[in-house]
Amino acid sequence: MISYVRGELASVEADKAIIDVGGVGYGVYMPQQALSVLPPLGTEIKLYTYLNVKEDAMQLFGFLTKDDLEIFKLVIGVSGIGPKGGLNILSCLSPDELRFAIMSGDAKAISAAPGIGKKTAEKLILELRDKVDIEEMLNHAAHGEERPSLQDGGVESSMQAEAVQALVALGYGNAESLRAVKQTSDGCATVEDILKEALKYLF
Q1: 100, 174 in Cβ contact below 8 A?
Q2: Is the distance from CB of 89 to CB of 110 less than 8 angstroms?
Q3: What is the pLDDT of residue 164?
C-alpha cells in the first residue's frame, strides 16, 4: 500500500492533483475542499493516500491530513459507498462537519453529496455513529494533529462538546455551531464561557 506521497505539485485538474515524485507524475484524486486549498504549483506537498485496486484500474486517493484519510476509510467501509462516493461526501462536508452530521443524524446534509441517496446516508449514520466522537473531533479541530489531546485530560474538549450541543438546541445549525465553538479561546473555564464567546461569532 502507498501510505503517502511527497513531491512537487505539478498541476491541479478538476478532480485530482498531479504530484511529481522523482520524475513520475502521480494522479491523486482529492476532495474538492482539499483541492481548493492546495499551495501554488511547484510547491512540495505531502498527501496521505489510499490505494484502490480494481480489475481495470488502480486509483490513488489523497488527503491533506491523517485525520481526513481516517474518516475517508470509515466512510468507504460502509457497504454501498465506494471511494468515489466517499470523495463526493468529503467534497461537500469537511471531516468535522461529516462527524457532526453523523452524530446528529443529519442525513439531509450527507445525502447532498452527488450519488448519495437518503437511504445510503441513513445507513452511513447508523453504522458510523458509534465510531465517531465529538470530543475527538474538537481535539483535531481546535489544535490540529500535532496536539492530539486537550489540557486537563480532555475536560475542555468535553465542555466544547456540550457547548456545541447547546447551540444546536438553541436552533443554530450543526456546522455553524461547530465553527463558532472552534473559534473560542482555550482560556474558557466553563461551558457558559464557551457559549458566550461562540455567540459573539454567531451574531
Answers
A1: yes
A2: yes
A3: 82
Query: What is the spatial distance between Cα 78 and Cα 121, in angstroms, rounded to a whole number?
Result: 10
With 0-12 CB in 10 A as exposed, 13-18 as middle and 19+ as buried, what is 39? exposed
Amino acid at 62: G
CA–CA distance, 113 with 169 (Å, rounded to integer): 25
Check: CB of residue 2 under 8 Å from CB of residue 60.
Answer: yes
Angle at 179 between CA 46 and CA 74, to 5 degrees: 50
pLDDT at 135: 57
CB atoms within 10 A of CB 32: 13
Q: How far apart are CA 179 and CA 86, in angstroms?
A: 23
The C-alpha atoms of residue 30 and residue 145 are separated, in whole angstroms, by 20
Splitting the chain (203 residues) into consecutive groups of 10 residues, what average pLDDT does each group show? 93 95 96 92 96 90 93 94 94 86 86 93 92 62 40 54 83 78 79 87 79
Which residues fall within 8 angstroms of residue 25, CB to CB, at 6 or more apart? 10, 18, 19
